[in-house]
Amino acid sequence: MTETETTETEKIHLMKNDNSGSSKKEEKDKIKILVSDYDEDEYKKMLDLYEKTFSLIKENELIKGKIVAINGEDVLIDIGSKSDGRVSVNEFSDPTEIAVGNEIEVFLEKIEDKEGQLVLSKKKADSIKMWDKIVEAQKDGKVVKGKCIRRIKGGFVVDLSGLSAFLPGSQIDTKPIRDYDEYVGRIMDFKIINVNNQNENIIVSHKVLIEESMAGQREDLLKTIQKGMTLKAVVKAITDFGVFVDLGGLDGLIHITDLSWGRINHPSDIVKLDQEIDVFVLEFDSEKQRVYLGLKQLQKHPWDDVLNKYKIGDKVSGKVVSLTEYGAFIEIEKGIEGLIHISEMSWTQHITNPTQMVAMGQQVEAQILTIDSENKKLSLGMKQLTPNPWQSLLDKFPVGTKHKGKVCNITNFGIFVELEEGVDGLVHISDLSWTKKILDIQDFVKIGDELEVVILGVDVANQRISLGRKQLLENPWDKLEETYKVGTEQSCRIIKPIEKGIIVELPDQVDSFIPASQLSTYPVKNFGDLFKVGDILKAEVIEFDKSNKKVVLSVIEYLKDKDAKELEEYITRFKLPKKFSLKEIQEKTRSFESEQIDFKIEDIIGEDVPEMNHPPAESQQKLDTLESPVSEKAEVKSEFTKKDDAKTEEVTEKPE
User: Fold this and answer.
1) Sign of the four-CA dihedral 270, 273, 275, 278
2) DSSP annotation of 549
């Protein structure tokens, strides 16, 4: 460059500095005035030199610039334009970058704003550079650092050097997060798992880095793990059904039943989160890569020492851990439980449900009755800790003595009468009356009624007392033999039609039976609809069995020596078939003997009723389960109804 050119260039630079606030056109005009003493060629040459002093810059691009000054909160940056740009110090993420002479990259938003100033942004420049780094990091799988700045629904917002990214809650760690707030403000390493350029969305993961770091450990574990091994584990999650643990890159499950030999309410009673424990490998599914573990298997089974620690007859204490219909299970120590059956809870009370004596969680004392170490079962008893009152009942209630008591329970087979507090006995249905077949016990007596009874037997071994009601009176069947001998004609009242015939009541409150074959010579349909309860019949006694207390009647035999008019009245009254005649009746033989007539209580009430044979122990053994129907109090009565034309007269007699 010649001396003349150098001088001209210096002039141009001076002009540039003097015109820092002017537009390019204004600057050119000023130059033209300043160099007006030059000719046209010299002017063009000078203008070319002026243009070369500016860099080729475009809007919306990253450009390099140099910090030329720092004025308070503003940093002046020369990007080779006619004027310097200004950037706030707040846009610098690294304060050490703010120094005169440092070269930095900025984003040129506008070459000139309304005031003709450059508009630069350091923050946008950093974001653009960071976005490129993010895209590159996703392709290369590189790790980036970021800061969790706040919680949002489903995860966190992470700051990646000015860019916002989303960290899902499931991508924070391999184990469940208990406190999300502790991650706010934390700087962590992340991997980019998704970048959406169109929406400018970034999704990051910290969990991936943890899994990658454990991948090698997981592979080694999968190769070496075997059933029966003992491994170290860390509790990572606790559920109602069990515990999930981390074996080092591989998860395993300890089911609640494998946590302890004893009963537990919840797995959290045994282990805590992040606790390091030893576990026993129960099963390993190599295909599904699932590991089933146990904790109790590393401990000695409590039953191994039961025979050394406990003996039959020992008194033990434990907590009620389970209640069933038949008893209560008591845990006397972890893993060792015994059953107190309801029959072993009280000497005198009829326990139908264990809640009558114990409650869940209650601490109770009991005695060991049996030990079955092979099947790991203990039977316990509560009543054995108190004296057996039944030992003295034989002296207190001798057989044959009379006592009064209150009806405390009614069943379909008899009545329970409380003789004293906690001591009751059974009056079997067959022992209520000598002559009556009780259709409904609640018509005979009600709960709470006072009843006089006779002691028939005391079974100390089975703790049962057999009582009688009819035994208070003399057996009338010796006298009834003369009254109801075979061939005697009697009036009777229908009590109940049954499938085999009808039950009727004779005078003296004697129940008897008329078979269906002795009511008509022809089969009758809708048998129960024809013979109504309360109707009066005339019949003849055809069988009297004193030993079985049974009387059988026949209408057919009664009609044999009667005239046709009485037969016609019978047929019309009960709407029987008119096919048979008096002659046919007279020719009918007594075929009832071949019918094997058996007059039973079951025929009357339609239910199976246990028989009552003495001694009482034989029948009482059938009465293991007792129900207590509630009934209202009513008078005990026996009725004999006589029908005269359209009027019905009820005669109520006192019970025997």
Assistant:
1) positive
2) T
Q: Give the DSSP letter of residue 568.
A: H
Nearest to 340 by CA among 354, 351, 355: 354
The answer to whether the CB of 362 falls within 8 A of the CB of 320 is yes
Helix runs in 335-433, H state only: 393-396
Mean pLDDT across the stretch 590-618? 47
If you count DSSP H runs as helices and E runs as strands, how many of each does the chain have, helices first? Answer: 15, 32
Q: Which helix (H) or strand (E) holds 31?
A: helix 24-34
Query: What one-character-per-residue DSSP string does 462-497 give?
Result: TTEEEEESGGGS--THHHHHHHT-TT-EEEEEEEEE
Closest CA to 595 of 489, 526, 514: 514
Angle subtended at Cα 495 by Cα 494 and Cα 499, rounded to the nearest 5 degrees: 90
Over residues 11-60, the pLDDT tens digits come to 444 444 444 444 445 555 555 555 556 677 776 776 666 555 555 666 66
- Strand pairing of 251-255 and 290-294? parallel
Give the C-alpha separation, 55 to 32, whole Å.
22
Tell me if residue 75 falls in helix, strand or coil.
strand
pLDDT value of position 477: 83
DSSP states of 111-171:
S--TTS--EEEHHHHHHHHHHHHHHHHHHHT-EEEEEEEEEETTEEEEEETTEEEEEEGGG
The residues, ordered by sequence, that sit 6+ positions from 506 with a Cβ below 8 Å of its Cβ are: 484, 490, 492, 512, 551
Mind listing the pLDDT tens digit for each residue in 150-207?
A: 898 889 999 887 788 999 988 888 777 778 888 888 888 898 888 887 777 889 998 8
Q: Are strands 489-498 and 536-545 parallel, antiparallel or unpaired?
A: antiparallel
Enter the tokens of residue 547: 């030993």
Q: Are 537 and 506 in contact (CB under 8 A)?
A: no
